[in-house]
Each structure stands twice: as structure tokens, then as C-alpha cells.
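Researcher: Please predict.
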Amino acid sequence: FDLAMAPDQVSKRLDGVPVYTVSNHDNEFVLISDSNGHKSLGLFCFRHEDAEALLAQIRDREPGLGRGAKIVAVSLDKVYQLKTEGIAFRFLPDPLQVKHALESRAKAGDPGKAFDGVPVFQSDNLVLRSKNRRFCPIFFSKEDLERALLGAFKQQQKINPALKVNTDIQVGSFEDVLQRLESSDDGSGWGDVVFIPPGMDALSHFSEKVS
């Protein structure tokens, strides 16, 4: 992997995607022990509501720690830096997006009952372009991708009214995409990935990233 992306290149692609965790009164991430009590993990949620539930559990189990604890938003590129520093952490995906991912895989003939990792969504029918280069937007929300696809097809139908809407969507895991980025060179196609934060308009975020 001599041509693999450097950590700072991967980190740039994660900038601007928020996750939520719990910090103590010194603004240090609160680490949670695993079931065996042997390893401490930082937990990061993709929904503020899940971070609130995590905070409630911490206050219930450790009232002393919980009194000064609070929810903080962290950009994914900062979390990735923790990985390069050897700090263990785990993501808690949005349950609704996990449900969407399982439904999509079932339609594709893979009726699994569990999804490993944080689901992400993309479509071959949605490509963004800038300066003769194509970019593949990857969404953390299936609803956001569907809105982007519908908007793109409406624009195309102004040129070609006979064009039919195609909402074909592929599902993968964020962790798998991250691994592929780490082991691919910038010209492999994986270097053209753009992550779209939940609730964000794809074109607006892409324009901001390109600028």
C-alpha cells in the first residue's frame, strides 16, 4: 500500500460530519468499560438523542461523574485522529438507518437480521462533478439520498422530460468505506468519496468542501 492515502487525506473527507459523545467537566471524553471491564471505549453517536440516552446511563451508573458530564458534538475527522493515536472507540448508528439498511439488503436477497457497523448509502445515479472530476456522495441518511436523487432527476427531466426516475440505492458500512480509503490511492476512485452529513443538502455540502 505504498500509494495508500495518508491519514490527513482521509481525515479531510470526514471533516464537517458531526457525531455526539459525552465529556466530563474537564472536557475529556468519557470512556465506557466493555462487558468484561478490561477495555475502555469512547462511544460516539450519530444522533443527539442517542447521546442523551448515553448521558442518562452514565448519570445513573456513576452519579459523581454524571454531575459534570455533558453532550458534545465532535467532527468525524477529530474522531479519526483518535484512531490514528490508538484510542479505542465505537460508533452507535442511528437505529432507523440500520432498519433501512436491513430492508435494502433484504430486497437485494440478503435477509440478514443484523447489520455490522454504521450504514451508509449511495447511488450510481447520483454523481457530483467539479473541474472535470467526478465525486461519489455517500450519505449517512437514506432519506437524504432519496431527496438528492429526486432533486437531481427533476433537474434532468427539464432537459429530457421522458427521463424516468431511478432511485436505485446501494448500502454499505462506514467502517468498510473508511478501510478502503485507508488502503487506496487518491486515483483509485475511492479518493473521490464525499461524505454527506445527516440532514445536509448534498450540493451545498459538496460546494463547501470543494471551495
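Model: The mean pLDDT is 82.
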